[in-house]
Amino acid sequence: MIQRLLVANRGEIARRVFATCRRLGIETVAVHSDADAGLPFVAEADHAVRLPGNAPADTYLRIDLVVEAARKSGADAVHPGYGFLSENADFARAVEAAGLTWVGPSPESIEAMGSKVEAKRLMREAGVPTLEASDEPSEADLPLLVKASAGGGGRGMRVVRRLEDLASEVAAAQAEAESAFGDGTVFVEPYVERGRHVEVQVVGNGHGQVLVLGERDCSVQRRHQKVVEEAPAPAIDGDVVDALHDAARRAAEAISYRGAGTVEFLYDPDTERFFFLEMNTRLQVEHPVTELVWDTDLVELQLAVAEAADSGAVLGFSSNGGAPQRHAIEVRLYAEDASYLPQSGRLVTFEIDHDLEFALGGERGIRVDSGFASGDDVSTFYDAMLAKVVAWAPNREQAIRQLVAALRRARIHGVTTNRDQLVEILTDPVFVAGEMTTTWLESRPISAESPSDSRTSVVAAALMLAAADAGRRTVQQGVPPAWRNVVSQPQRTTFEGHEPVEWWGTRDGFVVDGITVLEVSPTHARLEVDGVTTETRGQRYADHPGGPREVWVDGPAMSARLREVPRFTDPADAVASGSLLAPMPGTVVKVLVEADREVAAGDVVLVLEAMKMQHTVTAPHDGTVTEINVEPGAQVASGEVLAVVEEAATTAG
Fold this sequence. Notes:
Blueprint: E1 4-7, H1 11-24, E2 27-32, H2 40-44, E3 47-50, H3 63-73, E4 77-79, H4 89-97, E5 101-102, H5 107-114, H6 116-125, E6 144-148, E7 158-160, H7 166-181, E8 186-190, E9 196-205, E10 210-222, E11 225-231, H8 238-254, E12 258-268, E13 273-280, H9 287-294, H10 298-311, E14 327-334, E15 345-346, E16 349-351, E17 365-370, E18 377-378, E19 385-393, H11 396-409, E20 411-413, H12 419-427, H13 429-432, H14 440-443, H15 455-471, E21 491-493, E22 501-506, E23 509-511, E24 516-521, E25 524-529, E26 532-542, E27 549-554, E28 559-563, E29 579-581, E30 586-591, E31 598-599, E32 604-610, E33 613-618, E34 623-628, E35 635-636, E36 641-647
Parallel strand pairs: 1-2, 1-4, 2-3, 4-5
Antiparallel strand pairs: 6-7, 6-8, 9-10, 9-12, 10-11, 11-14, 12-13, 14-19, 15-18, 16-20, 17-19, 21-22, 22-23, 24-25, 25-26, 26-27, 27-28, 29-36, 30-32, 30-35, 31-34, 32-33, 34-36
Helix pairs in contact: 4-5, 11-12
């Protein structure tokens, strides 16, 4: 039996496996980069081994370092988690060659499914429907999808709508795949515009028996990365569901699959047909929804199968897990802005009310699987996901309601997140009706204003700043904030993107038109509007000394970050017209133009890489590149001036 397990992964993935190990009495070993040394998963492990460096290729993707860490720490088994080396057959062989128990499928199964081209061939032979593309695509074959053969999670994936773009998109996908998975192999297949992403959870014993634990819908995606997942999949005919389960079982049986895995399908609701996409030979990020619906700890099943295989025994189970007990929905909480750009920085406050963490239990509740806590730093080296927030309930409607409430009450300060967008998605009529597709989120308009940015929140932030300023005074401390003997005009506080707040300081406190101010302190405001009292908490901080003041306000519905506009602008802070600013911290991968070169609006000037994704920085208008301030390999901060494009002069006709 396994006594000490090393998890070859990080963050919430490692914590998830550790949780089951603690319950089973198995000691745990963490490996970590320098950037991750202070994160919770390192402190929670019984033993920890440092992998020198930060970038994944220098740390978590180094097979030799991870296997040596297992040897040094006395581990007798290795769990790969999901991501990084979890679907690397060479890693599985190296673990087994070191005399350790490999908690995963056989290297042969990983190889069979690791090449998506080879996997399609095997699936055709097993009678599983597949999508096929022409070797020489024409206009009639558009749109096409370029995909990384060795990976997933949207990395190395590009949609092509013009044949002339195919070569450049293939090159970009190869670069992303090489960076994320160490393998730049890509392939091309037809792209179904209105499909749904439906996957089936399987567990095999390696001797022909395959347990099927229902299906999940993962159609809500941005940039081909999943955002919302749920089980069971809504609005699919029962006969189609049975056929999906049968196809997944045949797929796993075709490779004598061992351990937990997922067979992914593209489902066309218009024709009720489905097609094999890939098989993930590992645990999925979204596995909690299956666990909560089926009352099954999938990590425990993985460990049981691995122990049986190591001892030569056969773990027996039926081929059908029965019927789902309830409904579960998971959202991925990312550190990213409204345009999906990754963010980094310090999580000043990270509080989400929940019933469980990495566990099962009860008829309803909220589960949070996270790799971060208040005070942790979110770096640019890894994926931008902060946590998985999961609600489960007797039915889908109740699960949606619980999840929305949990997100609205969450206090997340210091890093911009997609929390407000998640609430909008969950309450959108399309999602509520279960009619979402893989392209729905991209076609859905992005709200210009977050639902949390109400006037009450803005007024509360302005008054809390005023109270904080008054509290820091060293003279006339008994005088009310902004008090004047002769009132001439109101004080004005302005936050970016909002109308100015006008307020007065009187002997009896603050006065704001249309709002009754009941109580204010630097961290609290109680306001009354139309007879309804609202309690708001606040936390003030600055991005850097001397930088703009920010206030995070938490009300009954949501929290919002508000950045104050200084009354006077320092000329040194101004940037030249046409400056291209870094949208997030990252590394410059390519510089495609030189100084003094003419460019057209939309031309790619340079490419940044952050959190394992590549982002292009383009010319905002026709003009001439007058400055290039970076070179490949340079680390840049958010807002840093990368280049300047001077706009071309125009003449009136």
